[in-house]
Design brief:
Number of strands: 25
Radius of gyration: 24 Å
Number of helices: 19
Strand content: 15-25%
Number of domains: 3
Strand order of the largest sheet: 7-16-17-12-11-10
Shape: globular
Length: about 625
């Protein structure tokens, strides 16, 4: 459970060396073949995900082949296998593009161009030219990073198994469902090579002092503002920062100190908050000595110099995977109180605490900075209101056992450039039969999440980045780590006595949802968003056919039911064994629903039909 006590100040020691692997090469250093291979992979993914979301409707030709006729007059023919949830697996090497030639006859050639496919299907899917223009920018940025990875080969699955969790994050390939999953609109090519996780570059954070009243610090009850600074900054650094403020003729204690991402400080804060900087309401203090490593979300930074120090979540004014990547002020304000409530509630649960040993990586402190003018203007687009703030989260290193290895759930979907899935390497290293290893994995991941949902009517969003798995010395899964509570934790409308009193303002930081939506968070994050992609890897590389894979997942759900028959009414309310689930189409939302319209608020995805449940 989350440890919300004030931490001791860690000792500084030299930053460890990162593995000596090449960073991202410049675009001019990427070969044409690497570019085409990246396109082939992304084209296959686009066909699969667009067909899954019913953006396009391929026609079956027989023998595992399908034809997609588009309004543009172009057709694509491809080979694919169908999987659970009506999913698709498209063979990247068996796609052709047919178009009418100069003589009026249709000519089919091998297809490899993902951007051409988007142009070809724009009318069919119902997107418009402005949306397509920005989306192709995201697509090209994604392809550039993927091609760079192909060009230098990357680490093998065996090499990745030896990495720490923070370094391992830098080798992941992005969101499995979203096609343009590394768009990062706002980053230049130089920015990507400096700040993207796959660049594996050390980053030093800029620290600033913000006048009280403009900035507000919040922490868990046992964690003061001074304790956070003691934890995060060496005494010499704190003294130097105080001297900077005193040199401006100001009182250091009249300010809230906080880190800022260097890109955000240069590109956003000094622009939007220029008046505050000019009037000494915001004072730049300089860099701290610590080195940080960007994680998959790009805006979360892990401390490399002192591993026990907090991870820092910082806003970035870029668009990536559907939204602007700022930090909403209500989220920064609500993070510590949400952590305290969850720690107090779930930390006393004997199943979670003693049997499952679940770890909540608490968001223990934050700084909120509202814009002095725009914060009071109704309907201001949220990108302008989420520019400055920070959240400190407990690090994995501060909570894991001595010999425990912790890796993100997402890492299990990674396949190296030799075609070896990371999950297959873990199974090999464990010495267990694949079925036994998977059975342990499913119980490790599902049982804590199901227990919280059934017992308290609370859902996390345990997707690939938010859920981490702790492994024993033999790489067998043994417990779950969860993070990202504020804005990702929801409570059911149903009044549940076990939940007790909830924090004030729950409508902002603890949104109320129906039981179906609470369940859908689990379904989307675990079943549709992860196991749907893990099943083919298990079938192709671990000798576990997909029907058996899904039976093992169902067995894990049923095993929890059998251990806790007293919750039978909750099993029906949050029915994981229902015949079907709603489908929430993420790519459709970007291309057709939301597009790139500047909105005042983030919005919820709209369901688009249903998919059959393989656990039914």
């Amino acid at each position: 459970m989350a440890d919300t006590t004030a931490p001791a100040s860690p000792h500084d020691h030299p930053a460890p060396e990162l593995p000596q692997l090449p960073g991202l090469p410049a675009l001019s250093e990427i070969s044409a073949e690497s570019w085409r291979e990246a396109n082939r992979r992304l084209l296959a993914k686009a066909l699969a995900e667009f067909a899954f979301e019913r953006l396009v409707e391929p026609t079956e030709l027989g023998d595992g082949r399908y034809r997609l006729d588009l309004d543009s007059g172009v057709c694509y023919v491809f080979a694919a296998e169908r999987g659970a949830f009506d999913g698709w697996r498209v063979d990247k090497d068996a796609i052709t593009r047919g178009a009418t030639g100069l003589l009026g006859d249709e000519t089919a050639t091998p297809a490899w161009d993902a951007q051409q496919f988007l142009v070809d299907c724009a009318d069919t899917i119902g997107t418009d030219a402005p949306t397509l223009g920005i989306y192709l920018t995201e697509l090209s940025a994604t392809l550039t990073v993927d091609a760079a990875r192909i060009e230098h080969g990357g680490a093998t699955a065996a090499e990745l198994r030896e990495l720490d969790h923070a370094e391992l994050e830098c080798h992941m390939t992005g969101h499995p469902t979203q096609v343009a999953n590394k768009g990062r609109v706002g980053f230049s090519a130089t920015d990507v090579r400096a700040y993207a996780p796959e660049a594996r570059q050390r980053v030093k954070l800029q620290w600033i002092a913000v006048l009280r009243g403009l900035a507000e610090f919040r922490g868990t009850p046992r964690l003061s503002e001074a304790a956070v600074l003691d934890h995060e900054l060496a005494p010499a650094t704190r003294a130097a920062f105080r001297a900077v403020i005193e040199g401006r003729g100001a009182d250091p204690d009249a300010y809230v100190w906080m880190p800022v991402h260097p890109w955000q400080w240069d590109r956003a804060v000094q622009v939007l908050y220029a008046g505050e900087v000019a009037q000494n309401r915001i004072i730049p203090l300089g860099e701290s000595a610590d080195d940080y490593l960007p994680q998959q979300s790009v805006r979360t930074m892990a401390n490399l110099s002192v591993r026990e120090r907090y991870d820092v979540k910082l806003p970035l004014r870029i668009v990536n995977t559907l939204v602007w990547r700022g930090i909403p002020p209500h989220c920064a304000q609500g993070a510590p109180v949400t952590t305290q409530w969850l720690a107090g509630l779930l930390g006393k649960d004997p199943v979670l605490r003693d049997e499952l040993r679940t770890v909540l990586l608490g968001e223990v402190a934050s700084v909120t900075v509202r814009h002095p003018y725009l914060a009071g203007v109704p309907e201001t687009p949220y990108q302008h209101l989420e520019v400055l703030g920070c959240i400190w989260r407990e690090s994995v290193s501060s909570r894991k056992d001595e010999n425990e290895r912790v890796r993100t759930f997402a890492s299990l979907l990674h396949v190296d450039e030799h075609g070896t899935p990371f999950v297959a390497e873990l199974v090999r290293a464990s010495g267990l039969p694949a079925q036994d290893w998977l059975r342990r994995l499913f119980e490790t991941v599902l049982h804590p999440v199901l227990h919280v949902m059934y017992t308290y009517g609370i859902s996390f969003n345990p997707h690939g980045q938010n859920a981490l798995i702790g492994y024993d010395e033999s790489d067998v899964p043994r417990r779950l780590f969860l993070k990202d509570f504020v804005d990702d934790v929801s409570v059911s409308h149903t009044r549940i006595a076990e939940r007790g009193p909830e924090p004030d303002s729950y409508d902002h930081v603890l949104p109320r949802k129906t039981s179906t939506v609470i369940r859908q968070h689990v379904v989307d994050a675990l079943l549709l968003g992860h196991f749907r992609y893990l099943a083919p890897l298990a079938a192709d590389h671990m000798g576990v056919p997909e029907p058996l894979f899904w039976r093992l997942v169902r067995d894990a759900v049923v095993a929890y039911h059998k251990r806790h028959p007293e919750k039978e009414d909750r099993f029906a309310e949050f029915d994981m064994l229902a015949a079907e689930f709603p489908r929430f189409p993420q790519n459709t939302d970007r291309l057709v629903v939301t597009r790139y319209v500047d909105r005042a608020y983030r919005h919820a995805l709209r369901p688009n039909g249903t998919v059959p449940n393989p656990l039914a």
